[in-house]
Amino acid sequence: MVESETLSPPAAAPAPAPAARAPGSATRVAVVGAGFIATFHLEILAETPGVEVVAVCDPVLERAQAAAASHGVANAVSELPALAKLGVDVAHLLAPPDLHAKLTRELLELGIGVFVEKPLALESGEARALAALAAERELPLGVNHNAVHHPSFARLLRRVRAGQIGRVEHVQVTLSVPLRQLDAGDYSHWMFREPKNIVFEQGPHPFAQLVELVGGVQSMEAVRLGTRELNPWQVFHDRWLLAAVAERGTAELYFAFGQDFTRSTLQVLGTDGSLEADLFHDHLSGERKTLWLDFWNSFLAGWRRGGELRGSAWRVLFHYLKQTLGLGRREDAFFAGMRGSIQAFHAALHEGAPPPADGERGAMVLDWCEAAVATLPAPKPAEPLPKDPGPARTGEVCVTGANGFIGRHTVAKLLARGLPVTAIVRRRHSLPPVLTDGARDGSVRLVVASLDDPDSLADAVRGARVVLHLATGGGDDWETVKRGMVEGSQRLGEACLAERVERLVYVSSTAALYLGHDCGKDVVGDDVPTDPQPGDRPLYARGKIAAEAALLKMHREQGVPVTIVRPAVVVGPDAPMQHSGLGLWVRDNHCVGWGLGDTPCPLVLVDDVADALARLAAHAGRELDGKTLNLSSRVPLTAADVVAAYREKTGRDLHFHPRALWFSQAMEIGKWVVKKVGGRKDAAFPSYRDLKSRQLAPALACERARNVLGWKPVEERDKFLAELLP
Fold first, then answer.
1. Class of the 149-325 domain?
2. Burial track 236-272 (b if 16+ CB lie within 10 A, e otherwise)
3. N or C: which end of the chain has fewer CB within 10 A?
4. 0.85 exceeded by pTM
């Protein structure tokens, strides 16, 4: 192990507190960044005394407008200077970490105080410079170290400061967590772009807690226990062991990212006792010295610890039931920590006191981050990708969503057929090897475009013979799904029409069909229409139904040469096993069946889907214009069989739980009743139709793919499992 040089943060004078606000005046707040975390800030700010949210700012104005409308905010803007004109006092900055320092500086220079999501910056020196600028301008600067306000940690900290365990000597931290992006193969997130980024993304939570317990870091030894290569030139260290000496004690941390089992604990060892916070379950227990003999002391230690854990368990259950029934506010650990952090900042601001997590606190947390990554070797620079894709070639095939699960397999199949490929992507970094290698050898043109931007789409498809549309859009509400999935597909159709593309292939899903046991058919053919009751289906299925309808209408009325492909349950060795087509995964190792799981599931290997799309791209006939094609194999495997095969291959404790549909529906109705009793006006009555459709009861005929394209998917059981689980 190599010890980093001693890190001692320079002494800094406390930042002057901002002037106390006039009695009765509200802090005018803006939220900058309308992504996922913005919802939490907006909900908490709405219940924070002395605060008025006046604007949402996001570089994509439509996103800002949607967030503002959802939360009753009057203004939506796309540029920071507009906030100054609106008289904003404080901005909650929720941008990606690599933009924190730049945007914080811009806001401070506009005369606007800032409350920044962690980390404050990516360098402790930059953080201290921002703190100095805020002090110079007499503006508040705070950091959202919400882990310090985690309920069980807050209770632990109070007991430590009350002297219950004597003087703190050592802290042990375990942070073992799953990462959704790793499971999905989405390596474009900021935390994967450089090996050190994962520490700056995940580390500030425990490091902020350590600052409270043992102060600033003085030295650290770091060992990286696990490393994987996500893509060429993209290294990810998934397990770390850190040992540190701090101002007021020592610390040991185990980080494990992308794990199957979650464990997040913090144990404080003192001269006269210990305390352990289970941050995942929100439990706290401890042990102290007593006057009794060892045998009785040991009994009391176990008895009292058990009592504390039982008390914590009842408290968590009580808060959940109270919130669900509308009898109390939300108290889950994450939300309570966020609320505590945000409201502590605004309470200090209103009283004219320094923020509890100010710029210097943020810099001390970054000292810990920098110590952890101090011995990392410099990342290997990636070979640059060609900046100019050049003109389209004869027979060009454009693929949207080319870096997705089906997309990257499809590009590989197209290249194997010798077809020139244009990969339409939203960004040029963190791309799979099939795209980067192809860009460097000239077989793949990389084009950045967005379904929101008609001009970029027209440029991307210009000169193409075929466009394969695999990109999709998600969202938590219908308007967002409609904009991304439906209107985006329409814009692509218009671009294909304008640029004289010979064939547009829209990759839909069998989720657009109604496949309940009462659909009236034992076998569903290619021409079956989409579900005539889309309102009874979830947003994804509803979006696919609407997108199909919009494109087929464009085919009839404008002549857009579209073919629609509907893959069934697509599986592959490089995809998460927790496919919703198998059942409801209530945990990543517990799958509740859409029924008893005793009928064959319409499975299809991702390589077979990609092969069908490549065959369609190469097909010269026009008989598939305006037609739909199902893609499914006839492999004799049930959902229960697949889960059992995963269990045997992986050695994991996987379980398939058959459940009658009527029982699942009864449970969903029970949840709905509780939500209604709790005052949830937006709670929709559970759709039994959707539940029945998820059973995937009828078999799927795929005659067009087989007869017209010569498609032959893997259907022999043992071979299918061998390819799925190599």
1. alpha beta
2. bbbbbebebbbeebbbebbbbbbeeeeebbbbbbbee
3. C
4. yes
